[in-house]
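Readers of this paper often ask what the protein records in our data store actually look like. Below, we set out a record of this kind in full and without editing:
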Amino acid sequence: MTKPGCNLAQKESIYSEGRNVPNLTSKQISFCDAIISGLNQTDAYKAAYDTKNMLPATISNNAYMLMNHSDIRANIQAQ
């Protein structure tokens, strides 16, 4: 898995590893992977995104919104 914020070449390597998720960004894929590994939504968001300047309520809200994204939910359920 590549680090959040990877460039296009790194993102394409994710697809070549068998992960066909063209509608998701590398950070969204990292969020999915963190959820699949057992983290809760907030911790998964913190693992995938830079949250050092965010309020806890913002992190929680953004994580909630990501979990309600249809492509993210489908990716998680497919794993």
Observations:
- The two ends are 15 Å apart (CA to CA).
- Confidence is low (pLDDT under 50) at residues 1-17.
